[in-house]
Amino acid sequence: MTRLSISGLVLSTGLALLAPLGAAHADLKMAVVNVPRLLEEAPQAKAAMQALQDEFAPRQRSIVAQQKDLKTKEEKLQRDGAVMAENERRNAEKDLRDGQREMQRKQNEYVEDLNLRRNEELGKLQRSLLQEVQVFARAANYDVVLGDGVLYVNESMDITAQVLNALQSRYKSGATAPRPATAAPAKPATPPAKP
Fold it and tell me: Is residue 130 scored above 70 in pLDDT?
């Protein structure tokens, strides 16, 4: 099954489970959060990406400088290789090959390290955003907030802009993550009516 069909199945199953509650929960308050938009527009996300860019900029500059150096060596070998002594040319070719291997190794390490750090930061950010949504939903007395997997929703139910405002306020105040509100006691489940 594709992710879209699984999400649709989960959504329809969830809504089907809520249907029997009918009139007892006619005042069910639901909303939707556009998680990809939060990940893209939250100031915390932009700050995390900028921090990663700053962290990896020196290594990137080093790789670019090494690429330029290797290109210069390659051009010199192509230009002067015919007039070089055989021993000198072999040494220049070996030096160039070794430099290319070293640069490839550095590039691979750079990409792996960057991806690892990006995933770490993304995980932290996702946890923070989830906490923010939960705190916002509790404070605004929402019963259900849906995220990924929604195929259609009335725009009046989308609270993404309000959560983004809360994230921006929290970012400006210097707070790192919201404090989870104390959980309200769970509502007792109503047993199904016997036929």
Answer: yes
pLDDT at site 62: 95
Buried b (16+ CB within 10 A) or exposed e, 20-38: eeeeeeeeeeebbbbbeeb
Residue 15 lies in a domain: no
Q: Measured over all CA atoms, what is the biggest interatomic distance in the chain, rounded to whole angstroms?
A: 99
Tokens of 173: 């105040």
What integer pLDDT is reported at residue 189 of this predicted model?
A: 42
Domain span at 160? 29-173
Please check whether residue 134 lies inside any domain of the structure.
yes
- Residues in contact with 127: Cβ distance below 8 Å, sequence separation at least 6, in sequence order: 177
The confidence score (pLDDT) of residue 97 equals: 94
